[in-house]
Design goal:
By secondary structure, this protein is mainly alpha-helical. It contains seven helices and no strands.
Length: about 160
């Protein structure tokens, strides 16, 4: 661990706990409409704590998936609001709407893609696709991305 990190963390266990909590919060917020990059936090955490990298992947996947659940919920709420005002479905984003309408929940494997992923999840909520099925595909896509990132960081 770098010297500056030793100053910030009185012991290794506290440093790991703090890192895990910050990673969860960052991953959660990154899955919402906030422009955050949880990938950088995960790679740094995996380099600081290589023996805990799979825990870090699991925490980042959980946080990012729960953040996507909020986007899904917002999509459902937008549906209720827009149906009352009779909008055109294309207002949600024509590409995302076509993908989700054609492929259903498996299209959410791409939920990790910047900008498009948020739209896919919101459209899934808008279309009222089954929540647990959607969350399974979201977690699978986001988890695979994090595994590849940590594996790539380990090769450095």
């Amino acid at each position: 661990m770098p010297d500056f990190m030793r100053f910030l963390t009185p012991n290794a266990e506290f440093g790991l706990i703090l890192t895990v909590l910050l990673l969860f919060v960052c991953a959660f917020l990154a899955a919402t409409v906030l422009p955050l990059a949880s990938e950088a936090w995960l790679v740094v955490a995996a380099l600081l704590y290589p023996e805990w990298r799979w825990l870090l992947v699991a925490v980042a996947t959980l946080g990012n998936s729960l953040g996507s659940a909020t986007t899904y919920w917002l999509g459902r709420r937008l549906h209720d609001h827009f149906v009352a005002h009779r909008p055109r479905p294309s207002q949600l984003g024509p590409t995302a709407l076509r993908l989700v309408a054609r492929w259903g929940p498996p299209s959410l494997l791409l939920s990790w893609v910047p900008v498009l992923g948020d739209a896919l999840v919101a459209v899934a909520g808008w279309l009222r696709l089954r929540f647990y099925s959607c969350m399974g595909w979201i977690a699978l896509g986001k988890g695979a991305r994090y595994v590849l990132l940590v594996w790539g960081a380990a090769l450095l």
